[in-house]
Amino acid sequence: MGLTIAQKIIKAHLLSGDMTPGSEVALRIDQTLTQDATGTMAYLEFESMGIDRVRTERSVAYIDHNTLQSGFENADDHRFIQSIAKKHGIYFSRPGNGICHQVHLERFGIPGKTLIGSDSHTPTGGGIGMLAFGAGGLDVAVAMGGGAYYITMPKMIKVNLTGKLRPFVTAKDVSLEILRILSVKGGVGYIIEWGGEGIKTLSVPERATITNMGTELGATTSIFPSDEITRAFLKAEGREDDYVALESDADAVYDRIIDIDLSLLKPLIACPHMPDNVVSVDSLKGTKVDQVCIGSCTNSSLLDMLKVAALLKGKTIKPEVSLSISPGSKQVLAMLADCGALTDILASGARVLECACGPCIGMGFSPNSGGVSLRTFNRNFEGRSGTADAKVYLVSPETAVAAALTGEITDPILLGEMPEIKMPDAFRIDDSAIIAPADAEEAKTLEILRGPNIKKFPESYPQEDSIRAELVLKVEDNITTDHIMPAGAKILPYRSNIPYLSQFCFGVCDKTFPERAKAAGKSIIVGGANYGQGSSREHAALVPLYLGVRVVITKSFARIHVANLINAGIMPLTFANADDYDKVSQGDMLSIEGVWAGMDSGKMTLKNETTGEEIPLVCAFTERQKAILKAGSLLAYTKEQLQ
Q1: Whether pTM exceeds 0.85
Q2: CA angle 565, 546, 478 (to 5 degrees)
Q3: Is 92 helix (H, G, I), strand (E, B) or coil?
Q4: Among 545, 537, 534, which Cα is nearest to 37's?
Q5: Largest CA distance in the chain
Q6: How far apart are CA 32 and CA 51, in angstroms?
């Protein structure tokens, strides 16, 4: 039986385990990336392991999230990351150099290599045939130290593309179509491989848009073959030597096959407040628009920006609309300036923002109160934009431009003929904003620079054999990491300060949670299905840990978050019967006896001491995960292993 692309890469990097779906496998990691919202904590964790130099082929620290410096906090974090990168063998991408996924695709990504990043959209690297995973910062720290990355061996979905996209229909519409088909839960437990004759019509930036948004499906990762289109992209980046051909075997077996005819797709739009709330653009025609944002790691490539510039050329946006454009990297911005496209963008009335994540994470450019914002981003969770009552829609750059020019949701096909876009054969290479680390000898003399906002890793607690605690919070289905630990300009500067950050935990759901959790001392959270979807931010586990949460019980979990909970020492359990979710209420006193035996058997009993109900729970911990929980955290477990 043949292998899929992902199975081939996994086999080549397998350190332990077998490749049977559902079993745990340990992978050797070639590359890592961090960004500054998660990086400070990841490097504090790496430091605590006592390892002098990273042991990966390439590790890169990017500054792209917390670039709004309204106080000392972000600048101090950047200084800390730069100093630790120089000392420990990590490349440092300076603020303004670009969004981690865009820059990594341009300058570092290599087909067939493994990559993990402390950002959930790391699967963007699948656009050039990398096996790239989003992970918690602690997993990244362990990988930088030479440790394995553990995942549950996924099943495989093949998406066969046929035909060719019509003008004004884009890779973003392909992403929204697969979200419409599968939902935000439909990719859980799968790697999605894209293939078929239709992929030959898609450039690397278009492929990267699709693998980027595979994260919103809950997929482990997404991947395209590495072919002549990949080679052409790497050649344009001056990196043709990094090219490796990759394709699945003709007799590879998939657990599910989905067929999409590109020629039949139309412009699509995801409505508030979930990426899978997808309808056709023309079904919402005439809806007034207040704001348009173009950029993010999903749609900020040179190809995207050249299309935007061509459509805006000689036109002016509606006075009632505010338009922001964020090029994905310094390379993209410089090339827009070189060819005159930047002038066309500015002349339209658009505001050009820094090469950073910006509005996507609520870091500036929040909509007006109650405003409608069309964004080329990957998430439209409630409140993520920084405006609690904003209505955020996800669209392609072409649909975004149409709205900016007309002041309402408009099918971009009505703009007329799509200008022809010719990509250059060679990109503008300037790595001056990427700082190489010191050599090992010089590194011994270097000092790590720490600001007063950088606090230590929160204390963890070895899992006890019995638990008795109050149910301090009960939440519904599809709770995201933005619900648990919000982003935004007011909160992100404190990502390295868990005590301060804790006052915002679950603020979207219940502003009283932090105070009540502290008062309880030890507590339990209950959630619905797909709990913890969205970002890979481990703060969504570390902050509840700091507040005393010991157990989270749900109908089901998102992949990265359940790993982060275990890494933090919080035990994730699920209801054996989803309907039993209704048998507990916020404020109930709950208890579990025989926890250690239950970890082994996969079964535990939750007693609701308030009502007398006994509720069956299930779990599926590997031996390693049991050891992590008993040690209290992955950090404590790793220290034990190193000793």
Answers
A1: yes
A2: 45
A3: strand
A4: 537
A5: 72
A6: 16
Record the tokens describing residue 234, joined without a space: 């790497």
DSSP H helices, 4-92, are: 5-13, 36-48, 72-88
Q: What is the rounded distance in angstroms from the CA atom of residue 372 to the CA atom of residue 395?
A: 13
Instruction: Report how far Cα 595 is from the mean position of its chain's Cα atoms.
Output: 32
Provide φ and ψ at 309, rounded to 5°: -60, -40
CA distances from 577 to 580, 583, 615, 618 (A): 6, 11, 9, 9
Q: What is the 3-state secondary structure (H, E, C) of 156-195?
A: EEEEEEECCCCCCCCHHHHHHHHHHHHCCCCCECEEEEEE
Going across the sheet that includes 58-62, the strands are 131-134, 114-117, 31-35, 58-62, 91-93, 434-435
Average pLDDT for runs of 10 along the chain of length 643:
96 96 96 94 90 96 91 92 97 97 98 97 98 95 95 97 97 98 95 98 98 96 98 98 98 97 98 96 97 97 97 97 97 97 98 94 92 96 91 98 98 94 94 97 94 84 94 95 86 87 92 95 96 88 95 94 94 97 97 96 97 96 94 88 71
User: Reduced to 3 states, what is the DSSP secondary structure of residue 565?
Assistant: helix
Give the relative orientation of helices 559-568 and 623-631 as an angle to the nearest 10 degrees: 40
Is residue 95 within 8 A of residue 356, CB to CB? The reply is yes
Task: Work out the end-to-end distance of the chain between its first and last CA atoms, rounded to an integer number of angstroms.
Answer: 42
